[in-house]
Amino acid sequence: MLQLEDVHTRYGNIEALKGVSVEVRQGEIVTIIGSNGAGKSTLLMTICGSPQAAAGRILLNGEDITRTAPYDIVHLGISQAPEGRRIFARMSVLENLQMGSVPSGGRHFEEDVQKVFTLFPRLKERINQRGGTLSGGEQQMLCIGRALMARPRLLLLDEPSLGIAPILVRQIFNAIVEINKEQGLTILLVEQNAFQALKIAHRAYVLSTGRVVMEGAGRELLANPEVRAAYLEGG
Ligand code: ATP
């Protein structure tokens, strides 16, 4: 479904991605793990077209989207739940979800909202609460819910576990598995929480200073001594 071929991304003189090749197949959960500054967020942002790749190609179902504008990427069926969540703080939970349904034209709003509430009952309980007053974990649920409202074919998740209480992290990872299984949605998940991410991923890549240094099945990498030593210490 999605292919990155030898993608390079630069911020001025800094080369954040130094020739990254990654593939995501239809129906998979693929995870990218790696430490701080490895280039994980840059990879997702490059797929979304901002910043654009300086070299290499990004293909979505065979179509070259390397130079496609971010607005058009959403309309091609790629939706991102960004790092830091970026929900609308002054808007209610429901209004945030309405914003998410704009790319899909709001046509299936009721049906899609009910799906989000089934996935995250906590959001239903807080339907009229302002986004800014939700807990970190609830904001993450809202961020994922909002991304789902666009009816994507490919969902990009940037560190959904960041700064969240362990019990909510579990709920969020369970929800990711459920979205993948029930809705058949393809998911690319970027995570520092390598243990949780590898547990649910069909396949995984390890990114280190802008390069893929290892790839394999999620379970395979979970059992790999090098991965364990570098990313799973204490995990
Ligand atoms: P983290 O988990 O800390 O977010 P990451 O793996 O997502 O890390 P990126 O945020 O993609 O890493 O950063 C990759 C590299 O690019 C880092 O060296 C970072 O300092 C640099 N970088 C990221 N954004 C910018 C920017 N806007 N301008 C300049 N350099 C940047």
What does this structure look like?
The structure is a single chain. Helix content is 38%, strand content 26%. It is of the alpha/beta class and 235 residues long. It has 2 domains: 1-77 and 152-166 and 173-233, Rossmann fold (3-Layer(aba) Sandwich), CATH 3.40.50.300; 86-151, no CATH class. α3 (93-100) packs parallel to α6 (136-148). It is globular and about 45 Å long. The site of adenosine-5'-triphosphate has 13 residues, from β2 and α1.
CATH C-level class of the largest domain is Alpha Beta
Structural class: alpha/beta
Oligomer: single chain
Tell me the fraction of residues in β-strands, as a range: 25-35%
Mean pLDDT: 92
Structural features:
6-stranded mixed β-sheet; 235 residues; Rossmann fold; single chain; 2 domains; alpha/beta; 10 strands; binds adenosine-5'-triphosphate; 38% helix; 4-stranded antiparallel β-sheet
Summarize this, please?
By secondary structure, the chain is α/β, with parallel strands linked by helices.
Secondary-structure blueprint:
Elements lengths: L1 E10 L2 E11 L4 E5 L6 H8 L7 E6 L2 E2 L5 H6 L2 E4 L11 H8 L8 H11 L1 H5 L10 H13 L5 E5 L7 H18 L2 E6 L2 H7 L2 E6 L2 E7 H6 L1 H7 L4
Parallel strand pairs: 3-8, 3-9, 6-7, 7-8
Antiparallel strand pairs: 1-2, 1-4, 4-5, 9-10
Helix pairs in contact: 3-6
Adenosine-5'-triphosphate binds next to strand 2 and helix 1.
